[in-house]
Amino acid sequence: MSGHSKWSTIKRKKGVLDQKRGKLFSSIGKEITISARLFGGDLEANARLRQAVKKAKSINMPSGNIDKAIKKGTGSLDNVSYEEAAYEGYGPNGIAVFIEAITDNKNRTVAEIRHVLSKAGGSLGQSGSVAWNFNRMGIILIDESIISEDDIFNISIENDAKDFKVEDGYYKLFFDHSVLYEKIEIIEKIPLEIDSSFIAFIPKDFIKISEEESLKVESLIDTLDDLEDVQNVYSNYEVEQAA
Question: Cβ distance 98 to 235 under 8 Å?
Fold first, then answer.
């Protein structure tokens, strides 16, 4: 019996991991498709696509999946058409929630997001209701082992970075989101290897909540993140430190 129970647990855990892996493949596949649709399927000429493919390879996405996602974007395959969408709302304790999605059916996506927010005691807001409280930034990560801090700091200054940080073994260069892919091309031509890059919404102001309240918020964010169409979820909560 114990052996059977252990095997059941392993299968359950494997099922969860496979589900998360499938979600990750789907999420990055959509990003590749959108990137190819917006700026073309040539990796050399499309920095956004190049970074998406790099991310796909880092999680061992099969080459066939990557090629198929690019062809979907360029119109080589008659299939679903994806588009980017953003949703704004509120969670427990009035925290702001900003959600990025890539979807082939906005009606389905908004219905799923509204349901999750409502179930958690939150609500879906109108466009602009919480976006004002976030700065949209383009972020480039570079492994600190390949260049000195002085040199990368000078590069960030020369390229008009908005901010510069050293965290968890990486240099983080912050740019206005609208020039991110332009800056990627400049840095790659130095040449300097970029570990990864992404656009993030960074809160201007935070709402402090207790550790117990934060568990509800984290559960909401996890549930939203598990939705098939959702790419990223941002919020503005901060856990109060006990006195």
Answer: yes
Domain 2-74 belongs in CATH node 3.50.50.60: no
| Longest CA span, the chain | 66
Q: How far apart are CA 31 and CA 179, in angstroms?
A: 18
Ranges of beta strands (E only) in the chain are: 83-90, 96-103, 123-124, 134-143, 163-167, 170-176, 196-203, 207-209, 230-235, 237-239
State the chain's mean pLDDT as an integer. 90
> What does the pLDDT read at residue 6?
47
Query: Average pLDDT of 176-195?
Result: 95
**Cα three-residue angle 206-28-57, rounded to 5 degrees:** 120
Phi then psi for residue 159, to 5 deg, are -105, 20
Q: What is the pLDDT of residues 136-153, one digit of tens each?
A: 999 999 999 999 999 999
Is residue 90 within 8 Å of 131, Cβ to Cβ?
Answer: no
Of 143, 163, 167, which is closest to residue 153 (Cα–Cα)? 163
Domain map of the chain by residue range? 2-74, 82-243
HSE-CB for 201 with a 13 A CA cutoff: 21
Distances (CA, A) of 18 to 10, 192, 203, 222: 12, 34, 32, 17
CATH, domain range 82-243? 3.30.70.980
Mean pLDDT (whole number) for 195-207:
94
Q: Taking residues 59-69, what's their average pLDDT?
A: 93
- Is 0.70 surpassed by the pTM of this model? yes
Q: Is 90 helix (H, G, I), strand (E, B) or coil?
A: strand
- CA distances from residue 135 to 28, 42, 183 in whole angstroms, order as listed: 23, 30, 18
pLDDT band for 17, please (50, 70, 90 cuts): low
